[in-house]
Amino acid sequence: MKKFMTITGLVAPLDRANIDTDAIIPKQFLKSIKRTGFGPYLFDEWRYLDHGEPGMDCSNRPLNKEFILNQSRYKGAQILLSRDNFGCGSSREHAPWALLDFGIKVLIAPSFADIFYNNCFKNGILPITLSSEQVDQLFTEVNQTSGYELEVNLTEQTLSTPSAENIHFDVDSFRKHCLLNGLDDIGLTLEKVEQIHAYEEQRQQEVPWLFT
Question: What's the rounded Cα separation, in Å, for the pair 17 and 168?
């Protein structure tokens, strides 16, 4: 997992509440357990006018021009701004995979579904919870300003707006440590690899019949 420190990115405003994981990545795309290749199918039923299936060439599919992420103004957005209860529904880990593969590295909303929230941290995405009033303010500024960018500083736990306003956000210290150091569950385990090997050698001496 890549380290996350500071990102300055374009913000896309997805003004909907209760966006579930089936909307983020529909069920027909869950056949692969690879973490890549899901970006073209992110929000598939909202981005395209036809029905999507795995393996389709999305470059020629008819686009819903009204959908935010299809608008040229938000092309290349790395920060997604949304409303309450983002990521509700089933616990599919493919949802953060699809967001990250598309290029989204930061999510901002008043609240997130618990399992989705945890999955984001484990896959290198920073979900930021702000008050409804702060989110309203950001929606207003994004809609009024073309090319609206935020600087996200995880170390300082701040969002810096184009008007030089700094907005503080809270994040669990352990999750922050993992993102800053690029540590997922496997990476955390590998930090203890010497202790693991030492334990295995000790066990092999204590109960050698288990290793024959």
Answer: 23
